[in-house]
DNA sequence: ACGCGATAATTAGCCTCCTAATTAGTAACT
DNA sequence: AGTTACTAATTAGGAGGCTAATTATCGCGT
């Protein structure tokens, strides 16, 4: 989340002042918004720094996690289109990431025999073991970042964030059995 | 904040399951972390989309805001080094942004007469008016994103986020007069 | 005055993202 | 069988990040 990681966020009092020239400015909204962006960016950068120690980038890691069966510890092949959809990026981006992951021997490409337009991306054994070497540290790193928050604060945070970012269908969640539909996410 | 904007975040119940294979995983920390990243990314992308309508990127916008005197509505020249420091990016990044902003006639470069190693970047009148054309919509867009939150929730959110992201010197804040040290931030 | 180390900006080269254009393969309809 | 329409992936070209290497200028000590 580049180039807005201001060292100093404006103080609430300063925002109140600025309203004089900028009547559209909502000080409390602005404060919440800027703090959200900064906290998100900082968390992101910390993970990025950790992954970089293992020659990984967030994109590479996310892509590999999407190919990883968390329960079985095996590879779950997927097409570039499916990966792009799950990761929320353009297909061309997946092509580029797979290029470098393939070069490093972490994934392989294979034509889908049923429809030769499609490719199937697989984690190699080296890819699986690389990932499993990274995961414990990654989890510890996440836990450390949230360590300052109590269980209550974590719950409150999630609740408030979900009011902002459209949890796509909040009503539908209640009806579905959470254990049946294991989410296809990375961590 | 690229390539981790998962469509579906793992459900808390799913995380509890995963702990069996991954004992380092702290489910509540993971949930809070992923929601933070997603909310930050979504807010960022919405702003980015708004700015793009005005032929702006977050980087260009941030840079111009750093050159803009919010009270007087005029240009406040600054060196690339100072801009890099305030924006939290590398100097080379500033060079690139200034290149394109200069090409578009929004800023100018000028040698500092006192030290010819330094450049001073100025907003042009066109830059000022462009910025002022964008600001009202930008503020409205921020307010709209936070509209679902009550005043209380905004305060709580800011408080919790500040426990995570290192507010650099929380103790020092209390002593300083907030109105004297107007923050040098963009909004 | 002259050179030497420090500092400011730029350049070069890489990665990750994007959109738009291209290539390859499928399917469906004459 | 051949055209046509669609879909999947890749390529091409651009922007914004980064680090490391270059270039220009300054300031200081001799």
Précis, in short:
Chain A is mainly α and 187 residues long. Chain A has helices spanning 12-18, 27-53, 58-66, 80-87, 91-103, 125-145, 151-164, 170-175, and strands at residues 68-69, 74-75, 107-111, 119-123. In chain A, strand 3 and strand 4 form a beta hairpin.
Secondary structure tally, helices of chain A: 8
Q: Helices and strands of chain A, in N-to-C order?
A: HHHEEHHEEHHH
What name goes with the CATH superfamily of the largest domain in chain A? Answer: Winged helix-like DNA-binding domain superfamily/Winged helix DNA-binding domain
Number of strands of chain A: 4
Look at the structure and give the CATH class of the largest domain in chain A: Mainly Alpha
Gap from first CA to last CA of chain A: 19 Å
Rounded radius of gyration of chain A (Å): 20 Å
Please name the two chains that share the biggest interface, counting residues whose Cβ lies under 8 Å from a Cβ on the partner chain: A-B, 89 and 88 residues
Query: Assembly type of the shown chains?
Result: homodimer
Low-pLDDT segments, ≥5 res of chain A: 168-183
Here the CATH topology of the largest domain in chain A equals Arc Repressor Mutant, subunit A
What is the overall shape of chain A? elongated
How much strand content do the residues of chain A show?
Answer: 5-15%
CATH architecture of the largest domain in chain A: Orthogonal Bundle
Compute the number of structural domains of chain A.
Answer: 2
Strand neighbour order, sheet with most strands of chain A: 1-2
What is the mean predicted local confidence, pLDDT of chain A?
A: 84
Class of secondary structure makeup of chain A: mainly alpha
Largest sheet of chain A: 2 strands, antiparallel
The residue fraction in helices of chain A comes out at 55-70%
């Amino acid at each position: 989340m580049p180039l807005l990681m201001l060292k100093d966020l404006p103080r609430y009092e300063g925002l109140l002042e600025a309203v004089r020239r900028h009547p559209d400015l909502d000080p409390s909204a602005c404060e919440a918004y800027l703090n959200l962006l900064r906290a998100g960016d900082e968390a992101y950068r910390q993970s990025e720094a950790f992954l970089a120690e293992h020659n990984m980038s967030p994109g590479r890691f996310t892509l590999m996690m999407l190919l990883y069966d968390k329960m079985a510890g095996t590879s779950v092949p997927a097409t570039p289109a499916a990966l792009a959809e799950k990761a929320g990026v353009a297909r061309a981006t997946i092509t580029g990431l797979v290029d470098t992951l393939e070069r490093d021997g972490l994934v392989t490409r294979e034509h889908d025999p049923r429809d030769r337009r499609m490719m199937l991306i697989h984690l190699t054994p080296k890819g699986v073991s690389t990932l499993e070497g990274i995961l414990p540290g990654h989890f510890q790193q996440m836990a450390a970042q949230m360590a300052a928050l109590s269980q209550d604060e974590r719950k409150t945070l999630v609740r408030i964030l979900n009011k902002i970012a459209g949890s796509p269908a909040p009503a539908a969640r209640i009806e579905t059995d959470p254990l049946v539909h294991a989410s296809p996410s990375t961590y």
